[in-house]
Amino acid sequence: MAVSVKLMSLTVAALGVTSFIFGVIAENKKPASGTPIPGKGIVICQYPGDPTVVLGYLSVAFLLASSVAGYLSLFYPYQGKSVPRGAMFKSSSFSAFFNIALFTTGLAITLLVWPTVTEQLHLSRNVHHNTETACPTAKTGLLGGGAFLSLDSSLFWLVALMLAGNAREDYFDEIAEKGTNSESLKSSA
Predict the structure, then answer these.
(1) What value does the CA radius of gyration of the chain take, rounded to a whole number of Å?
(2) What's the CA gap between 175 and 53, in Å, rounded?
(3) Cα atoms found within 13 Å of the Cα of residue 6, Cβ hemisphere only
(4) Angle at which helices 5-29 and 142-188 pack, to 10 degrees?
(5) 118 pLDDT exceeds 90?
(6) 31, exposed or middle or buried, with CB in 10 Å at 0-12, 13-18, 19+?
(7) Residue 81's pLDDT is what?
(8) What is the pLDDT of residues 122-138, one digit of tens each?
(9) Close Cβ partners of 135 (under 8 Å, ≥ 6 residues apart)
(10) Which run of H or E residues covers position 158?
């Protein structure tokens, strides 16, 4: 089965939507706080069993897979015809959306990893020497924001893929035009 633009688009979109779904579920399943259990000079925080950490990491993994697929789809030699990267970046709209896709991917990774790691630390370091501890969890809203940016990122990769198709066509038109002009010069000489 040959790799096509349509297949790559579906792959990027499916991975991005999956990342979004995992991120939103992780945000919704995150507990508001833990239950403090006082001890002798310490407080042990007991947290309900929740899949936030696992879902957060799954969201990050699918975001990375979507972004790698998006990046690779831009420069893949479809139908055996490769295009130099410099020719792709001649298009200012392609360059802009490529950079926006990279930026949103980085921001989405940050907003997904930060609360996921924080939540994991809260769960593993649950003994506190401050008897006033309220058993915190990761900041609310970051996972949901990261999930939406993950979806945005995959959409920007798709727009960049469409613009790469236009840049690819322009490149091959220029090559064909140069070939036609050089042949007409040879025949007139």
Answers:
(1) 24
(2) 51
(3) 2
(4) 170
(5) yes
(6) middle
(7) 83
(8) 999 888 888 888 888 88
(9) 33, 34, 35, 36, 43, 45, 46, 47, 122, 126
(10) helix 142-188
The contacts of residue 112 (CB under 8 Å, 6+ apart) are 23, 56, 59, 60, 63, 142, 143, 146, 147, 150
Distance of CA 22 to the CA centre of its chain: 13
How many whole angstroms separate alpha carbon 153 and alpha carbon 64? 10
Judge contact between 26 and 56, C-beta under 8 A: yes
Q: Beta partners for 128?
A: 43
Looking at the DSSP assignment, which residues form a beta bridge with residue 43?
A: 38, 128
* % of the chain residues with pLDDT over 70: 94
Amino acid letter, 102: L
Cα–Cα distance measured from residue 152 to residue 146, given in angstroms and rounded to the nearest whole number: 10
Helix, coil or strand: residue 128: strand
> What whole-number distance in Å separates Cα of residue 129 and Cα of residue 144?
31
State which H helix or E strand residue 54 sits in: helix 52-75
Residues β-bridged to residue 127: 44
* Structure tokens given for 165: 């198709």
DSSP 141: T
